[in-house]
Please model this.
Amino acid sequence: MDSTQKNARIAGLLYLIVVLTGIFSLAYIPAKLIVWDNAARTTTNILASEFLFRLSIVASVICYVAFLFLPMALYKLLHRVNKTYAIIMVVAAAVSVPISIVNLSNKCAVLTLIKQSDYLNVFVADKLQAQVLLQLNYYNNGIQLVSVFWGLWLFPFGYLVFKSAFLPKFLGVFLMAGCFGYLLNFTGNFLYPDYRQLGISSFIALPATIGEIGICLWLLIVGTKQQKVNS
Model:
């Protein structure tokens, strides 16, 4: 296996780790445990599945560590296409990692609240449950903020994929469109309180989903079509 194919496989493997752990911690766990308008039920769900909630935090850490190394692997693969765009891609992705990890402290705070330590006895049950949901809302707001960078890195990445001679151009188009999808959803969520009820956020996020899962599988299974690189 030549170095280009090896770099593609490494990037694909890192991307697969990001995708799987991201789906588990950002989609599966919230859908299973969190009821955003019911603090008591949410707290009960977490207490009943505490290990699953803890596992989601571990999965998030793995996801963010993999996401730190992913753009570096992609840089090795794509920097010859356009070095400036490759650097921007790495910076935009890397900036999101410390923000994401710090944001996990809100999830860790939930674990502290449900421990029912003696010093928490000053809180009656409903107030403690409200604190649990409040911390989860803090966490969710942090995810919305960091999603700006999850979107921004996709544009230079998509451009590099599109301009390369060894990766599918259509995936590059989906990745670049995915950048604007992230930004539109961020803007909608923060400017319009009932934005999610419109039911369009999942459709707006579709290009990013297709682009990211598509390039992940392509790198992992197909690799690169050839070693020629456009200037």
